[in-house]
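Minutes, project check-in
Item: structure for the 239-residue chain
Input as provided by the requester:
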Amino acid sequence: MTNDTMKIPINYAESSEILKNALKLTGSPVAVRFASTKDDIPPGVEELDKTIRHCMMVNLARKEGRIFYSPVSKHECNGGAWALGLMEITPTLKTGDFYFQLGKFNSAAACKRTIDQIPHLQSGETYATVYAPLEKTPFTPHVVIIMASPWAMLKLAQSSLFRLGGRVVGSCAGIQSVCSDASALPYLSGKPNFSLGCDGSRKFSGISDDEMVIGIPAEMITEFAQSVGVIVGAAGSKK
């Protein structure tokens, strides 16, 4: 595996346990890495044995504790694979026809305007996506994804402002939530991003109707864990 450890070490297991307990999570925060080459896959991490969507892969790590990697051949959703840098955008997605045919937009033009603003990694930049429960990750992640209740997202939003204050600004379009909103965008921007989920991820990946999604740059996970511990225990916090 390439040398991509952080200069300041992070205790992922400790951060994960704090987040799980403080936020009352029903699964684990999920570590995700964008492996640029085959050599970037950690020793002992096996390729996923089936072809499914990225959001479903996240849920395998979240709910079943699985650790694995997935090249483009194991990604069922073309939109997700494109957003994650595994492949070129398909013609029907690029023109807007794909989501137009699904009834998500009034016109193909409205769909294309949305697609043109979807955050995505450069096509071909990613060899494979790698997944693990945060507390067991054998690799240095690029982003950490959390699926949780609106109450937990409130605490994460407050945690993101705990040190410096300000306002929370989220970016989503109701499509490509876990792949673009919670994976590509936090990686590219270096900022956490909240998302409402999308029909695909809610239908296929196990995100329940009472859950939302956030993607956090891995470099920030210690700060979030420290802050959320204080926020949840604060006198003015709804328990």
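Outcome recorded: Strands lie at 30-35, 68-71, 128-133, 143-148, 193-195, 212-217.
No further action items on this chain.
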